[in-house]
Queue: 2 jobs
Job 1
Amino acid sequence: MTTFINRLKQLHTRIQTAEITYHRPANSVQLLAVSKTKPAAIIAEAYQAGQRHFGENYVQEALSKQQALGAFDITWHFIGPIQSNKTKAIARHFDWVHSVDSLKTARRLSEQRPAHLTPLNICLQVNISDEASKSGFRLHELAALCEQVSTLPNIKLRGVMAIPAPCHSFEQQCQPYKALYQAVKMLNKPEMDTFSFGMSDDLDAAIAEGATIVRIGTALFGAR
């Protein structure tokens, strides 16, 4: 058994244990394999081991992998910063976008999504720790933006994504996720069912506070 398959099994066990510990329904948390900088051959190995959802940060790198792996039924998620000149490619070649950080970007994705494809699933990126170095909406902007984005025709608003400031204690890791989860629930929008929370270092806290997708790179593929 390869090192990768061992890591994949360990991660699924860790997720299942957290679901039980924090009273989440079984299989309510999906593992998104963050495959940026990793070659198509490793993604193929992951696919053959049962992984179906992959997250990419760089458009050109992702398009090359998608071409090489066209025979596989992969669900592709874009999770990186979005440049205006890349929205057309993202709208055409991805199933999910987690990092929508402006109304302008949401509009471009809607306008550029081909009519023959299903609506593009999107998450709004929230700068939950109010960090100057990170993009994303502020929490107080979320309600108004959801109303505006929900009217766009070729995208489907599914939820939110966040990358909080690093914290070392479990309690500190939980706080921003809890605040964002509660803010979304107060909007009373049942279609917003996706919480893209948590990475290798804060996976358990994210699941405790409602994550439905955890984005894992290092713990799955090793150091980059």
Note: The chain is about 40% helix and 20% strand.
Job 2
Amino acid sequence: MRALVQRVSRAAVRVGGATVGEIGPGMLLLVCAMAGDREAEARALAGKAARLRIFRDADGRMNRSLLETGGAALVVSQFTLAADASRGNRPGFSAAAPPDAGERLCLEFAAELAALGVPVATGRFGADMEVEIVNQGPVTIWLEVPQQGRAKTSAQ
């Protein structure tokens, strides 16, 4: 499972012009479930994101986590993070989980963040969304957790 994490001052997601999720300071998490991912990967990725030390401490250093700052998370599913553009100019998305599994795992990811104490807002799975962010820093980090129960290889 993978996520693109952005530290934000604020973020919102709209569907059909209506706001469906909105946060103040915290993280925007664009999340993609990969084929073969399970709940274990969703929970591991949520824990990693919640504990990622990308927020400033009193000395201005990136040394605090979302859990420590009390910030919120806006979770937006984005299967295009599974894109493979290695051949030609049209990306392929066959590495992404099927839609039903992708939705279930994105919801599990959001639920795990909430269970850890993070206020969570979400987009709408499968919808054509408009995402508005104010990236603070800017700070943008790629997170990925290997599938549980097997070693990650260069081919995965």
Note: The chain has one domain: 2-86+94-142.
